Write the structure tokens for this entry.
Amino acid sequence: MQLYRIERKALFSQFLLLLLLGATPVFPQNTTRPDALRSYRIGRDLESRDRMAEANQYYDEAVRICRDEIAQNASNMDSYTVLTWALQRQKKYAEVITWGQRGLAVNNAEYRIIETMGEAYFYLTRYEDSLRSMQRYVNAVPQGERSSVAYFFIGEIFRFQKKFHRADIAYTTAVRLEPGSALWWYRLGSVREEVREFKPAMEAYQRALRLNPNYREATEGLERSRRAST
């Protein structure tokens, strides 16, 4: 207790001295800066737990922080990147394109934005734009964090265009990079079935069912391929 009183008196004496010298005392301040990436990640975690209303609050916060940062520094590529990610999660695809283009005007080799725009173009059914973006991404960073996703979207576009052999190559690359998606294996089986490659189709459907034994479409595809192959 005595030591506490001495410390308080010493601090008070220093405070008075500063005032007498005409200096402005400096008090501790909260210097924590808003963190858009942290808000985005919290939003993703909430979304994964089906708490989308709460997730959107954090996505909105991430968007606000990023826009403020861009207003202060228009060359901050991390801000453009997180901004497009947050808008993408909210399915604001047209805004993803708008802000992505602004970011690429600053740095046209920001491949994180290019991939995100590829997804946005896909959901806007602008498939040729999506394909160009995804191919540009995988050509530049073939082992990038989103390469497997990019190849899956490339496969989807080729499937829509009925270019089944090309779709097979894209899906095969996607599952090689990330083999844990039952949907991706199912899609691979479906395009193989389309070109009557029934044994490879069965293998893909079986991989889908190992990951999700209740996958009805994969079960049906497997049964069709078995019947067709006999």
